[in-house]
Design goal:
single chain, about 120 residues, mainly alpha, 3 helices
Length: about 120
C-alpha cells in the first residue's frame, strides 16, 4: 500500500510538472516576438516585375501589370493570414487537450493517493 501511495504521489508531481511546462511553453510563445510570416520567393530567376513595368509601352499595359501585382500580393496576404490563424487554432486546441488530459490524470492520481492513504491507515 505504501508503494502505491508513493508511486501515485510521484506520478502526480510529474503530472503537475508537465502542466507547468505546458504553461511555460504557452507563456514563452506568447511573449516572444513572432518571426516574419511571409518571405517572397521569386518563381523565376529571370522574371522581374520592376523590369516589366520599365518595359511597358502603354499605360493600359502598365495598369494591367500593377493590378496583377496588387492582386497577387492581396492573395498572398490572405493565404498567409489564414495559415497563421489555422496555426493559432491548432496551438490552442493542443494546449487545451494537454491541460485537460493533465487535469484528468492528476485528479485520478489524487484519488488513488488518498484512497491508498486511507486504506493504509485502516
Amino acid at each position: 500500500m505504501k508503494t502505491i501511495e508513493h508511486t501515485s504521489l510521484v506520478l502526480l508531481l510529474l503530472s503537475l510538472l508537465l502542466l507547468a511546462m505546458v504553461g511555460a511553453a504557452v507563456a514563452f510563445q506568447a511573449y516572444t516576438p513572432a518571426p516574419p510570416t511571409f518571405t517572397a520567393v521569386p518563381l523565376d530567376k529571370d522574371f522581374s516585375y520592376a523590369q516589366t513595368v520599365r518595359e511597358a509601352t502603354s499605360l493600359e499595359g502598365l495598369r494591367k501589370v500593377c493590378a496583377f501585382w496588387a492582386e497577387r500580393e492581396d492573395q498572398s496576404r490572405v493565404f498567409v493570414n489564414s495559415v497563421h490563424d489555422q496555426y493559432d487554432k491548432l496551438l490552442r486546441d493542443v494546449v487545451l487537450a494537454l491541460v485537460s488530459l493533465g487535469l484528468a490524470f492528476g485528479a485520478g492520481l489524487i484519488y488513488i493517493y488518498f484512497t491508498a492513504r486511507r486504506l493504509q491507515r485502516s
